[in-house]
Amino acid sequence: MAISNMQSIKQSNYSAIYKLLYSNNKLSKQLIAEQLQLSLPTVSSNLQELINNQLVKKNGKFESQMGRRATAYSINPTAIVSLGVEIFYDHASVVLINTLGDLIATSRLSLMFERQESYFKQFGTWISNFIDNQKLKKISNCGGWHRNSRSCFKRRSNNPLW
Question: What share of the chain is helix, strand, coil (3-state, %, to 5)?
Answer without folding.
Answer: 40, 25, 40
